[in-house]
Amino acid sequence: MLRYFHTSFAVTAIGLGLAWVIGGWAGLWVTFNLALLETSLSFDNAVVNASILKHWDEKWRRRFLLWGMLVAVFGMRLLFPLVIVGVIAQASPLPGPISLYEWAVNGHWPASDVLTMAVMRPDHYAATLTSAHIEVTAFGGAFLMMVFWAFFLNREKREHWIKPLEAGLAHIGRLNMAAAILSLAVLLALASELPEHEAYRFLSAGLWGVVVYAVVESLGALLGDDGAAAKTGWSGFIYLELLDASFSFDGVLGAFALTKNIFLIVIGLGVGAMFVRSFTILLVEKGTLSTLRYLEHGAFWAIGSLAAVMLLAPLLDVPEALTGGIAAVLIIAAALHSWWLNRREADRK
Hints:
Number of helices: 15
Strand content: under 5%
Helix content: over 70%
Low-confidence stretches: 226-230
Largest sheet: none
Shape: globular
Oligomer: single chain
Number of strands: 0
């Protein structure tokens, strides 16, 4: 089993070494805690990833591990926050040619880009990024809510864990565009409880989350991926990266409670993301989802709980530890129920 984590352990060693160079023992401790937090709170992400990745061939699994990892670490946990702050501050996320030229010729750094802000003025960068909390949580929550609906509103779904509730949702799934209708109803209901200026921000970002999900769901047909219904090929790759982004939004924002150093945040969350991917491959190759029949159900209920917490964030302050605890309880309960049923069926034979 450890062979699935060889790369993760190597990345951890390199990451912790860099953290020590950047911040000494304090930086090492902060990075370790960020990696531990990201890993422990993202097991539901690994299960959902595995439910999609099990349909992929070996080539696309390797691409997910290599290119998907680079996108997850540098794209979603470094560049994407820089882009958000850049939009808010109306500044370039990264240094441009003019900045580099001025530094090379005059030895003066104009400090007009967001990356420089994050390095030189980390408190201002953190405050600016946190100010977009409503948009970030509304977009991520709406996207995850659509993922949740897609699983439970499937009219062809025959196996149910929480039978009365899941069977009822599958029945509702017979309604055309049921997921979009329910998501829009939730967004409108929550927006009505917010002040007008916050309601507009919340509703706009949430609508984009629904739209982006719908677009990604349709990419298979556009790109001509084989087996698009199972989210294979480029459409599946994009879907998984957006799913990872939605899971990571709260982690990126919550990391500022431990440190304002953007590089320690990227290293810590990146190490955690690597372990999530290792868990994903283990679940796929061991066939865990087939053995523990309700594990996937528990993971999607965990996604639903995370989506609810993210969408309620503008109204309620829910500790991140509680969110992760709810997800862990749901997944463990589903796994134990599956194991108990397997034992009971084996004893009958």
